Amino acid sequence: MKFGPPSLSVEQVLDNVTPFEMNADVSLLYLLINVLKGKVPASVLLQINADALNWNISAKKGEYKNQTALYLLLSAASRGKEEAFTVLAKVAENKAVNWDVPLEHVKNAGLTPLHLLMKLVQQRKPQALIVLNKLVARHGLNWNALAGNGSHGQTPFYMFMKAVYAGIPQIIAVFEHVVANNFINWNAKIIEEGEKGITPLLLLLRTAIKGDQKALAVLAKLGENKDINWSAQAENAQGERITPLHLLLLLVLQEKPQALAVLDKIVTRHGLDWNAPVKTVGESNGITAFYMFMKAVHAEIPEVTVLLDHVVANNELNWDAQVLSGKEEGLTPLHLLMLLVQKQKPLALAVLDKVVARHRLNWNASIKVAGNDSNGKTPFYLFMKAVHAGIPQATAVFDRVVANNELNWDTPVLEGEEKDLTPLHWLLLPTGYQNIPVNKQPIILEGGIAPKYQPAGVLPHLPQYERQHAFEQYQYNSQQVFTPLPFSLMPENLFRDAFQINEQEIQATLYSVDGKLDNSRPVFFIFAGRKEAALLPKANDCRCILVLTQTEYEEITRNQIPLEIDMLVVHRLSSPTHGEFNQLHLLTARRLAAFLVAHHFQLNHFAALDDNIESISFQAVSPSANMKAFYDLLVSQLESKGCISVSTASKTRKLREHELGSKFFVFNMALIREYLLELKDVFLLQPPASEANKPLEDAYFQTFLSVMLNGRSRGYEMQPKNLCVLQRSLQHRNACAKTGMKASIFVGPESLTELAPHQQEWLQEALLVINDYITKKIKRYEEKAKQLEVVDLGVQHGLVHHVEPLQNDSSPSQCRQGQFVSAYQTRLKNWQDKKSILRHYQVSAIQAIANQTEPACSILNATGCGKSMILYTLSQEAFAVLNQGELIAVVTPHIDLSNQMYDDFKEYHGKFESDYPLERIISVSSDSQSCSIRLLNYNHSLEENKHILIFCLDSFQKFCEIPENRAKVRLALYDEFHSYAKSLSVLLQDQPTDSLVVGCTATLPAYKVLHNPVYSYPFTQAITDGYLAPIIADGLGMDFSKENVAKLIQFLPTLLQHQQHPGFGKKTALATTKGIIYLPSIADCDAAEKMMAAANIPCMVVHCKSENRKQNIKQFLQQESGFILAVEMLRFGFNDVNLGVVIIAQNLNNPNNRNHVNLLQQMMGRPLRKLGDKIAYVLTFDDNKVVIDHLLKETPHVNIPTNDYLSQSNTYYLDVKGECKVVDSDDDLVTNINPLFTIEVSSDYFYRRKLLPTDSILQENDDKEQMRDDDGLCDEDEEQLFKRYCKPWSIGMKRKRESISVDTAKQETPMQQGKLARYRCS
């Protein structure tokens, strides 16, 4: 044992102890005892060698008998001895120390050092929390040691759970680890009166109720623990009682998935006490666990409702236990069951017979909630309402309920609309639909008529305001994908049985191997008019029935249909009121056949769906749910409604109340049969045969059901989108519309004499409602059509783009006399840049257009040097000499660029203070914010004004298909025409007379379409002039190949995190910048996105099929850093001055292929826009770099790269674990690895820096402000542009690598000498 300074002896420290009479361990005990007694200062503890001592040794006698040295040390810490905590931290690292030694002292029997530590933890002692953190990593701690007497039965784990409940962060952090790696006694009870019966399990549940996610995660795993007592009662000092089962059900009512999973596991076990009541002074007094379970069933929590039958069948349940206080006073589980019976919930109806079989149920318990409509209602009152409603399961047990129970027939309802009604009232009131007390509501139909069915035809859309966010976005845990009609090689059709249906109303044949239809399995009728193209759900545990005509059946069965698919072949449909249906292929006839067959086989429910549904997404109990689970989900939502439907997925349209359904329906056939008693009555659900070829047959039956059921329930309902949606297939769509069907009002059957009076009333009211709906929708659509013809498109388009229309547009309709081209060029020759907005080369380009003599010409202008401003100026000057009805067409390669061009023109209109109305600039494309070609052709307003139309190429080609449109174009400006040179050559063949064509590009196409440029300003000159950022290109150390692309993707995060940018302000590694990575395929982009996301590098994939592409690009423009992964998108026309790097990982290595050269030039031009001292950086495959070096060979480099960039030489490799690693290529480690590629600083940079005059100074650009396309240099600056290089120049030295210096060159390796030499200035 080591004690402090030499001057402090053991004899001086210990009182009456001779150190020579005991060993070091015994001395430790006496030292600790004397510290506790105050005879020795605690500071002495800091001088002992804690690692060399036995902390498990215990005192043999005296008041500290059985206490180990560790226990004594903890006692000192608990008395506030800070030095004890310091020693304790060292002791915690000693794995030989036993924390579980219990005391045998009567007062503190069972206490262990772990108990004392947890007491300090509960006091939030920081040092104790640190010690605990070290201990929990060990297995074998006895967390279940029971302390008796004064410690009231606490275990260390109980104390740990109290700390968890208190929310101590350090405890919560190790919570899951402690539970996962130790055997835990969750049932250990406290015996103290104030916390009597409280267990760790109760504390866990209370923590979970507070919303603690880790507590919920631990709870989820307890369902498998069969040793847990969920019914153990806990009692506090006030005598309040509760069980863990109550708290678990409270979490179930909150629909916590973890609690639902536990409940599913434990209900199968016997021994749960469902009848123990809560005892409290609050509102929950008297509530049993079973009452809470029934509340969850009543709340229609799917995971609970499926357990009802098992709980009822396997437990002795108290259905009569009343809530004794609060807002639910008087309610019993029997009340809740009867409410479910009234709603015809299948699971409640299924257990009703089992419940009433019990004698002596208390049917007379009254609800005692003042101010509530339920006040005074008894279970028997609710039961009698169900009997009166004709619910079969209720009427079936009526006699037994009356015979076996003492019933109070006269208990009145005390409040609400049913005040003073009694159970006897419902017995005496006649039954039947005509006598059911109704509270009829006006029938409201919402929805629309699809444009394809409108008499006016499909109308074009006006430009729409941009949606910042989708209306509704939901996540679903299950999806069922529908598949095309499968065929097999075996002649399986021969094995099906044919079941004939020969009724007066229907003759049909059901082909099936599963027998006749019944209620044992879900039934899906699929209207398979698309025959082989029909999409079907998976038929597992379901009856999947194709509804066909005889001809369709014969065509389909030429192939072999799998046996699990049934076929219903309809031969004849006939009705005395609705006539003979001769066109059995129509959807109306197929629907009728499904209704009739369901009625014939006495089905309670069935589904009917179209054959063009691609998939269904829904919220299921289990993510692996199948089509049967989806059917059961819908049936559980059906309740007493006539039918329900599934809405079509849409991110831009909200679901409206009363909206009519389509595509997928589930019908409550049991309810419908109560009203349509005979088979012939079913025809009322659909129009007569004479109107079977009209659309809206689905709206017809939903309207009829609403009328028929009005006052009792809803006829139809669309399910909320957070529950389920369907996705339509885009293939073979509009099959019905192609027949030419158009919406019109329904006339109905010619004669109604065959119908009963109440059926006549239903039909007449249904026709009034549906026809009023149709008439209004058609009228509104026709008004819209007239408006579209005359609306001013410029004004409408402007409003969408936040452009206020000019109130007094006084521009003359005729602005010139004579030819356009001559007037236009004369205006250009006289034009001056009075505001000095343009740069010198932009002015030169405009002057070149003014002086050229061909009808079509081109200009070449570098990327990032303001092509759009040149085009705007040309458009602005042309607009001034247009006459009414004439146009300027600005054409871009695709929609994104046409949108960008419009935004540029809108900005320039204000910058130039143009005097023509801004609303006369219109973007034309299929984009929702633009005008479509269909809209331009439909509308007449273009003839009444002059316009600048900005097209995407596809829209302009369609526009020119109409000669009258083409003839209006006086000036056509083709932006980036290199990308569509061949299409342009076709367009030029029909160029109108007296018109001018100007092409503008940064790279000339290989296909010669226009004359040589009348003016050129290449990017090399723009860089030299300082309008564009200087550029450096490095190779990846490997050539292009599929294998090397995969290698690059694998190493992409590592590369971005380690490669230094040559210069961009404070941005260092590439990962801190913004860039675009061009990859060969979308699959490569997706793979790269996963790699970068795993490394937390912001990125997004952008391609033509990207969802929300427009919004994502806007978001990217606002980011400080991040990357876009693209294939063909954003190669040209994309402007972001903050781009610092592009990585080109595509095969563009042929210098003789003009397309390769152009694409490289366009892509490497993305980061060229000037911003302070930025250097544009390009990384590409070595064979691509050869082409780039050729493009840059005459371009001097004017900015100094950073030393960090110049000094890097990174070798990338995989370590033994397969992880991506990087090492300096000069490192000795390189000789022991298998390098995959090495990125060196390009020698091209050192060559191009020498292109500057030999007496010039190379300086960093001090301009820190953003330089835009349209920012120019003043005259003085331009004159001095090259004078800045007129003094001797120098360049920053590469930083010296470790152990290498210029003065010790003799010690350098040949490789190092070569690498360093190129940085040394001669």
From TrEMBL:
SUPFAM superfamilies: P-loop containing nucleoside triphosphate hydrolases. Keywords: ATP-binding, Helicase, Hydrolase, Nucleotide-binding. Pfam families: Helicase_C, ResIII. Residues 1072-1169 form the Helicase C-terminal domain. Residues 838-1004 form the Helicase/UvrB N-terminal domain. GO terms for cellular component: cytosol. GO terms for molecular function: ATP binding; DNA binding; helicase activity; hydrolase activity. The keyword Nucleotide-binding applies. PANTHER family: ATP-DEPENDENT HELICASE IRC3-RELATED, TYPE I RESTRICTION ENZYME ECOKI R PROTEIN. This is DEAD/DEAH box helicase family protein. It comes from Candidatus Berkiella aquae. The lineage of its organism: Bacteria, Pseudomonadati, Pseudomonadota, Gammaproteobacteria, Candidatus Berkiellales.
